[in-house]
Amino acid sequence: MTTLRDLLTRQREYGVLALLLLTLAVVGAINPAFLKIGNLRDMLVQDAPVVIVACGMTLVVVLGEIDISVGSQMALLATVLGLLTSPSHAHWPVATAVAAALGLGTLLGLINGLLVTFGRMPSIIVTLGMLTVLRGVSLALLNGQDITDLPVGLRVFGIGTFLGLPISLCTALVVVGLTVALARETPLGRRIYAAGSNPEAARLAGLPTPRLKLFAFTLTGFLTAVATIVHQTQFSVIQAGVGQGFELLVVTAVVVGGTSISGGRGTILGSFLSALMLGMVGSMLIFLRLGVSATYWERAIQGAFILVAVLADHLARQRRPRREAAP
Amino acid sequence: MKLPRGLPGRQELVLLGLLIGLLLLAGRLAPDFLTARAQIELSTHVWELALLALPMTLIILTAGIDLSVGSTMALCAVVFGLTFHAGWPVALDAALALAVGAAAGALNGVFVAFVRVHPLIVTLATLAAYRGIAEGISLGVPYSGFPPSFAFLGQGSVGGIPVPGLLFLVALAAVAVIVKFTPLGLTLSAIGYNETASRFSGLAVTRIKLWLYTGSGLTAGVAALLFAARRNTAKADIGTGMELDVITAVVLGGTSIFGGRGTLLGTVLGVLLIHETREFVSWEWSRDELNLIVTGSLLLVSVLADSLLSPKKR
Predict the structure, then answer these.
(1) What is the CATH number of the domain that holds B204?
(2) What is the reported pLDDT for B6?
(3) N or C end of chain B: which has fewer CB within 10 A?
(4) C-beta of residue B102 within 8 angstroms of C-beta of residue B81
(5) Which residue of A has its CA nearest to B254?
């Protein structure tokens, strides 16, 4: 018999969704302005980059790997995008610059993937190295000066709307839809899950695990470029600290969403919902009117959410017979 | 950890070679850089990193990781500053900061050892949580005005050696003795190679892990005090990104991120190489972003070389 409790703890998506709705209801009851369309839209727009990149990251983590370089990738991509389009620098046409950024993002992901698969290096080390190097490169390119004259044609990606919805929001929804379909319905997606849940069996069955990993890293790089294009263009300035700590937000969303860090298990929908959940914390603290000082606690609460999710998982697992495979 | 061997391994020799090469280059380009005075002066930047690398080496040996050390530093520093500004005696403030560090580490340890959550997840959570608490209780305000007796901890020197340096040497000696002359070193490697087998062999895996993470938190407390004493300021943003520097140094030193393999000598060389590279690059070109590029490339190239040169596994 499936009890509600089982449902909430077994499928992390339902647990996160329940928590999300509960938070909306409670904060909405205390301050109805929280549920106004304008605020909901602002929150979603803010979460868009995390959602977009988390779609690729989920597949990377399902394959038992990790990419902590996405924040620095975003920094480099934003810097390049700014330098290419700004009238006082390269002044390229926006379309060419955007294509270049997408290409560069894909290339960065490909490099990560190649180092992990053919370089046979642990992904956490590869992407830690890339995190450091790419941050350095973007700082060197910026050379201590902010880019302030982004052309309107570029800013449109950040502040424009499509059918009344902000472009970043539309993009995030399309990305979620496409990647969910990819993961669930295509042979490629099923192979990724197969290779992640039992690498040995996948190898014996002849699955090309290295190529699957290469794909997942490359997709993540491409999606980071997409996120950069629709998010960083919301602001009129591109400065040195862009994207710092972004990798932690994405990895956190993926993990809280129920993806196992050792691979094989986890859904994009879960990552999507938990990105929304975690993104709500800051706004929630403002709307609860706890005073100015409350907003300083945002990160503490986000951290506590992860620990609670992890504990809930642990308790749920204890109630069921263990079915952990030997390594 | 290869205990009985007296000779350094390949990774250590490579690091030593790189270090010597760097110093020769530095001596050629900037003779002033190599003077004892300059080196002691520059060494003030490295002690916190060096201290934190000791427990991190042991943790990574067990196939664990601690991403929260930078945030724990911030939390300890803020606790110290807050209690100092409340008018409590400075010794008590310092003791409290250390206790908070140990408690923060112990909480990581409980989640890793008892709840058995992947350390990457636990410390990713506390990386956010501890810095969040530091920001929350301090409201982002910097504390300063610590007494000279406290500043001595970070700025003073005994017999020409900076106090933090002495502290590091004592800690290094203690850890080295424990690892070399007690079964602990071998136990840590065993846990890293095969945790299940270690448990079935009756090794106290749970207890050892709890102590390791607690020790890492305590060390972060010490590092926080050294930082506060050196800069005479304590703020919620200190130690940002420190965890990545520490892990880079340890991995550069040849410790396998999958556990089981690694040496303290390697870690010391890794720390030295990163430190000297950074200081030299700053000295010669005074551009911080070059440091990032050089450090990151060093990590990538050394691990890639190691992986391509070693016989194919898996």
Answers:
(1) 1.10.3470
(2) 44
(3) C
(4) no
(5) A125
